[in-house]
Amino acid sequence: MPSWGDGLWGGTPWGGALAVAPGGPYPPMIVARAPLPRSINVPEDTLVGVKFYDADLDLDPSSVIIKIDGVTVYTGVGGFAAGYVGITYDTAGVHTVQFTKLGGWGYNTTVTVYAFVADATVPVPLTAQDTWDWTTRDNPLCYTGLTPLPIELKLQQPMQQFLELEPLRATFIDVALKLQPAATKQRNNKAARVIYQYGFSTELNTLLNPYRLRDRDALNSTVCERENVMIIDAALSKFKDRTQAGIQSLLTLGALPREYIAGLVDYQDSTLPSYRVSLAANLLMFARSVEDPTSPTLATPDSIFTEDGVPLLTEQDDMLLRENP
Q1: pLDDT in tens, 74-85
Q2: What per-residue string of b and e applies to 189-227 under the rule 16 or more CB within 10 Å gives b?
Q3: How much is the mean pLDDT over the chain?
Q4: Would you say the pTM of this structure is higher than 0.85?
Q5: The CATH number of the domain where 49 resides is what?
């Protein structure tokens, strides 16, 4: 965490003795803000700082109010609210409030700051206020959405042949991620990664063997905005009839081997939300693969084999092999 003090702003022009400006009265001013308005990639443990100044040197520190996202976190009379820590100090006529949030501001979060101050002008104090925002950086351990697989790009496009599955696809993309306080960067790429990972989360992924090889990096990536599976399942459950129609279309076309039908029906009727969501993901990826069978798998030798040259198996694969040697 950055240390307290003027180092947050670097050099300040407010050093040295200040004399009362001629004329007046003058209103107070907010002369410095940190982080700067509209800053991005701000560290999640950053300090928030505000500097106030009045040319009449009659600033009233007790009048200061600072809010974060509409909630008061500091007043000149009451100090800092629970969950926030900071300091205040005065230097050469400049009043500084500097603080941070216990536990940090979170990743990929837009923070809105409001500041208010008044002076001692009589009979009516003069005031100043301002509102600005800044955004913290992405979690370095989270998938950025910048490296989508070809199948993930296709999952973001409307179905071309299996039109009965289009509402299922569009809804899955919409609900795959949690609602964020700010627009999620690379949102659809991340949503498609969630679908891809659910597709390979159960043994149904063998349906994709003629078309898709597992990409180890994609399956090991973490989509931090991923929605709870029960919420996804609830949103997709209203498309049960369309799911059945999609399965029938694939069967009629001859693209879906009959031996898979029982398994698909079992998954659709499963009491486990994760199985029903996995069915939807596999069905969408399989349908898109059938629509464009020439698309590359993007499964490189490094991504589907271990360093010893052994084919990469998921935990589910390993479990199935142990149960069915």
Answers
A1: 999 999 999 999
A2: bbbbbbbbbbbbbbebbebbeebbbbbbebbebebebbb
A3: 83
A4: no
A5: 2.60.40.3780
